[in-house]
Give the backbone structure.
Amino acid sequence: MGERMYVIVVGAGKVGWNLARELLDKGHEVTLLENNRERFTTVEQELEHNVQYGDASELWVLERAGISRADMVIAVTGDDEDNVLICQVAKEKYLCERTIARVNNPRNKQWFELLGVKPVVSATDLILRLIEHEVPEYGLVHLLDLPEQHLEIIEMLLPDDSKAAGVRVGDLQMPDGSLLISILREGSGFVPGPDTVLEAGDEILAVLDPTVEEDLTAYFGPDGASASST
Amino acid sequence: MFILIVGVGRVGSSVARSLLQEGHTVSCLDEDAESHARLEIGLEKSWEDLGGRYTVGTALEIEALEEAGIASADAFVAATDGDNTNLVVAQIAKRRFNVPTVIARILDPYRAEWYESQGVHTICPTRVAIDMLTSEVLQAAGGNGASRSGAGDPQAQE
């Protein structure tokens, strides 16, 4: 554990309750806020003074919870409007630098970005990401996204008819803004040299600017196929 | 002016009718199709016959906002029954669609005040009620002169 933090968690649903418990176990100070009286009473039996009753959309409820000294605010209610506004107020009014918001409907993610609330966590997105991982035919798998830095690291399986199969790494003409960093072949990974020859069935890891993702997929994709994205 | 009103409750529907009768183009968006009837209270013709527009959809759905004409709106009024929805959708209208005039109806006076200071124009009916009630009480009391017991009357203590 790093330094001890004071964390305010909003919403004592399954996510919020478990999160509060884990943070407390790790030695952090936690206040969980819940605005449903019945739920509050249930959770209070376990968490006692670490849970407070109230609607965190109201400023005085956040103030009573001590938001001015909070190191982090995590909004995980089932309501996206609540989550985005609680984090916006935490950040802009109470100058709490670290917030995490849950997005229930992935289509609302754009509004969190618009209001400057990040990072966000969406269970739906996470599951979609896992599906990508489990189904390699899906094309390219994101291993790391750094949107602020305009970089991402992806993994891609070279199909049987990949245009790049049989090509020396030194002769590859990958899109500008992308770089091959390693190859996974027959269960082991290595950093290729210029004389390494790519084979169908190789999984490649590449670092790239997200805007060239489609070009990269097309470049390593099946012969004759035009650039297509799923 | 082309005005988009989100939330056709008692407030939204009345504002919509007044603005239409003033000769403006008014488009309304509400998630409950039943709210259309509320728009037509006291009207001789149907809302559409009078030139009004009406869309069913939720405020955070971008397709619904676009269908209701947000991209060309001169003014935007957020008047749903939820403060949080109004605050989010008003900021969407302002930041994403650059609507020149955006007004949000916010019941919570503290947040109305803070968002107002952040550039979101808010109207707070609760604040209006508080101010009116307070001044009515003071005026009535002032008219009646001293309090019955003398206690709590600042003048009585002088």
